[in-house]
Design goal:
alpha+beta, seven-stranded antiparallel beta sheet, six-stranded antiparallel β-barrel, 5 helices, Thrombin, subunit H, 2 domains
């Protein structure tokens, strides 16, 4: 998840250390991807301020041009950060194994993206640190503008936000508790992705029909933070982007989260007990697809997407939004049906329509 995270103190050598999984070097999950956000504050009377230019969330390709992710990822800027005005916002998606923040900033600079000249020396491109092979970044279509300036990089489930804005220009979630939210969003790519087969979704109500679903092992695939995670250490109060936490993972990896511990109407919760050897998820993993593992086989249909809002990176029981719900599938089907016209997708399918952002 891009922002909602409580970080563990990096002390107490006697605490148990968690793993966030194994890099997907065999490319078992080619349709799992990450999107990288370029966010610039445009304060009147001041120079543009490049505030964010690295991996934001994870997701999965569900059609040739649509990446499914979490709704709190696509809606964060208008709900938590600044509202719908005062910034420039664009996004790109990669499916490569490794794509660092430095790679992304070098890519932006080479492409001549607006405002890259305002990147600071410590938050810019180091040509010597470029990954080899260099990753491919697929541009996301601009989903919404404010005053002609790109503001929305994705589409959010219409039930996630209330229509209209507060007096400060921010949007309002229907419920601040992600356990009760339709926490799913979508990013439409400018061009179809070639050579990668989109992933199918579990059918409506399918998880409820699976005998023994509680206790079934699950696997999550994402690009989130890979710093040392400790059990039994009080989380710090700090929250913020990857740079505040010692750098991101930016490597696609497979996290085995143990069995499903709870199945709710809206979500499910994997065990993520690092004392029992489970992997855990962290910042940047929001929107990661979750798969069931039955009879030793990881089944390719997506069961859920990582939501969050507990003690991230601590091996806590982070919830996943169930994608086998009718409201989730109707939203995604709407976006996919309009994937060749992002304006129509915004107007017909998204919460952004209620904020007046759609073209």
């Amino acid at each position: 998840m891009r922002h909602l995270i409580a970080a563990a103190a990096l002390a107490a050598s006697t605490a148990a250390v968690a793993s966030d999984g194994t890099p997907d070097t065999a490319n078992r999950f080619p349709a799992a991807g990450a999107y990288y956000e370029y966010f610039v504050y445009l304060t009147p009377g001041e120079l543009p301020d490049v505030a964010y230019a690295e991996q934001s969330c994870s997701g999965a390709l569900i059609s040739p041009k649509v990446l499914m992710t979490a709704g709190h990822c696509t809606a964060y800027n208008y709900t938590i950060d600044i509202g719908i005005a005062g910034y420039y916002d664009r996004a790109w998606v990669t499916f490569d194994l490794v794509a660092t923040g430095n790679d992304f900033r070098c890519f932006l600079l080479e492409q001549g993206v607006p405002y890259t000249e305002f990147m600071t020396p410590g938050y810019g491109c180091d040509p010597a640190a470029r990954s080899v092979p260099f990753p491919t970044f697929h541009p996301a279509a601009i989903a919404g503008r404010n005053g002609g300036v790109p503001t929305a990089h994705g589409l959010t489930h219409p039930g996630y936000l209330r229509e209209g804005l507060r007096r400060d220009g921010r949007a309002q979630p229907v419920n601040w508790n992600l356990l009760h939210q339709p926490d799913v969003g979508a990013v439409i790519l400018v061009d179809a992705v070639n050579g990668i087969d989109p992933l199918p979704l579990r059918a409506v109500g399918e998880l409820d029909a699976i005998a023994g679903i509680v206790g079934t092992p699950v696997v999550s695939v994402g690009y989130g933070l890979n710093w040392t995670k400790l059990y039994g250490v009080k989380p710090t109060k700090g929250i913020g982007p990857l740079t505040d936490l010692g750098g991101g993972n930016e490597v696609k990896r497979i996290a085995r989260l143990g069995p499903i511990k709870n199945l709710f109407r809206n979500s499910l919760v994997p065990r993520q007990d690092i004392k029992k050897g489970d992997d855990v998820v962290c910042y940047g993993d929001s929107g990661s697809p979750l798969f069931l593992e039955r009879n030793g086989v990881v089944e390719p249909a997506i069961a859920a997407v990582l939501s969050g809002a507990t003690n991230w990176c601590q091996g806590s029981m982070d919830p996943y939004y169930r994608i086998d719900q009718r409201e989730a599938q109707e939203f995604l089907q709407c976006v996919v049906a309009h994937q060749d016209d992002v304006g129509a997708a915004c107007r017909n399918c998204s919460a952004e329509a209620g904020l007046g952002l759609c073209d």
